[in-house]
Each structure stands twice: as structure tokens, then as C-alpha cells.
Model the fold of this input.
Amino acid sequence: MDVWHWTSLVVLLCYSGLRAIPDAYYQAAKIDGASRFAVFRYVQLPKLAGVLTIAVLLRFMDSFMIYAEPFVLTGGGPGSSTTFLSQYLATMAIGQFDIGRAAAFSLIYFLIILALSWVFYTVITRSQNR
Done:
């Protein structure tokens, strides 16, 4: 459900990235006799690398903050099998009124997401620069 929720954003980012590629690249590929796959592989994909990096990074960060979908679909159950950390933090802060502990957990959660996103971004940008 979360994938369907955010697919339109990724499609819109990819479409805007494709529209930003100048026509001169397509004309040069046509003159060279490139196939449709070659145009995709050697023109579109390298030009979309930055846009795709941002899209994947946004989805990666957003996947950690999932709350509404599992709460509405299953309520965290059966038992606690589909309870995410964001749901647990909300229950701790609102349900148990343990705001200090919930704030500390959420800060640690934020730092983990920040560190993972930084590592992810660094790996992707280094692989693109090779």
C-alpha cells in the first residue's frame, strides 16, 4: 500500500527528469543509429541518475516513517507482528504518556535514519562518479 501511495511521486520525478534531457542527445543518437535500448542505456539512464538518486533516497527515508498504512490496515496486529517503531513511539508518547522516553527514542531513530541515508547517498554518488 505504501508503494502505491508514493509511486506517483517517483513517476513525476522521472518524467520531469526525462523532459529535462535536451533534444540534441536524441538527435545525435538517431544519427548514430542507436536502438531504443541503446538510447535508454547510454542517454536517458545516465542523465536520470541524479533524479533517480533523489527519488530512491526520499523513498528510503520515508519508508522508516510509516505509520498510517499499517495502523489503518491491521492496527499493529495480530499481536504486534506488524507494529513499526513509529507506531510504538506514538503509543509510548500518547498511550503511556511517557514523553521523555519517547522523545529520546525518536531522536535515536532520527539519527539512525540520518546515518543510513548519508551512507546510502555516499555509496550512490561514489558509484556514479566512477
Q: What stands out?
A: The mean pLDDT is 86. The radius of gyration is 21 Å.
